[in-house]
Specification:
246 residues, alpha/beta, 8 helices, 6 strands, globular
Length: 246
């Protein structure tokens, strides 16, 4: 299927590894011109070599207060316009119940506030061109305990749904993808091979952990003109791991 993405432009955050890197590679393969951002510039340059295309590389700490404006400005300067925003940056933040206000603030900033600010920094030029795609890589809705990232991702879902209702008339869609167990450095660091094998057999209906390209395939579709009638949706990609029904 021709997704009609060739010649479009995209900004992918957290693109240096894992899911973000997989998304960047998949979009590049579809002929999308890319801006990519992360803290580790050397990995972004390695990604550029792998794509075989010229990328707009933005080395930036997402937690910086001015990060959304800096990233948006650099992407617009490098690409001319941003058709597609993939909000992928973030990270898990498990807490004890006596977590400090600073811990909560950091979790919410990293996993919700910066994504919202970046999207709003780019919305104006999408509205002006009557076309845009915002795809948020979020998280599950079944927390095992207190985790600042889960609360922030729930906020992302609510914000994205509300935003989708405001911008649909401008040809802009806003969707969210909560990943399941997707193989990455973080997964390999946090879960032993034995646990991954046990979970694959006992808890994941398709019988294995996913790969970054499993997320990237859906991102490419949602970012394409063919997905024009899908907006405000939360679409898990988890091999059936999660038990909620919608």
């Amino acid at each position: 299927m021709d997704l009609g993405l060739a010649g479009k432009t995209a900004l992918v955050t957290g693109a240096s590894a894992g899911i973000g890197r997989g998304i960047a590679l998949a979009l590049a393969a579809e002929g999308v011109r890319l801006a990519v951002t992360a803290r580790r510039g050397e990995r972004l340059r390695a990604l550029e070599q792998e794509t075989g295309a010229k990328l707009t590389i933005i080395e930036c700490d997402f937690m910086r207060e001015d990060a959304p404006r800096r990233i948006a400005d650099a992407a617009l300067q490098g690409l001319g316009a941003v058709d597609i925003l993939v909000n992928n940056a973030g990270g898990s933040r498990p807490f004890k119940i006596d977590a400090s206000e600073a811990q909560w603030e950091e979790a919410l900033t990293l996993n919700f506030t910066r994504q919202r600010q970046l999207a709003h920094a780019l919305l104006g030029q999408m509205i002006a061109r009557k076309w845009g795609r915002i795809v948020n890589i979020t998280g599950k809705s079944e927390p095992e305990g207190v985790n600042g990232a889960f609360a922030a991702k729930a906020a992302m879902h609510a914000w994205a749904k509300g935003l989708s209702r405001e911008v649909g008339k401008h040809g802009i869609t806003v969707n969210s993808i909560p990943p399941g167990r997707i193989l990455s450095e973080q997964i390999e660091r946090n879960y032993t091979p034995e646990y991954r094998a046990w979970q694959s057999e006992h808890e994941i209906p398709v019988g294995e952990y996913g790969k970054p390209e499993d997320i990237a395939n859906l991102v490419c579709f949602l970012a394409s003109p063919r997905a024009r009638y899908i907006t405000g949706a939360v679409i898990p990609v988890d091999g059936g791991l999660r038990r909620y029904q919608f």
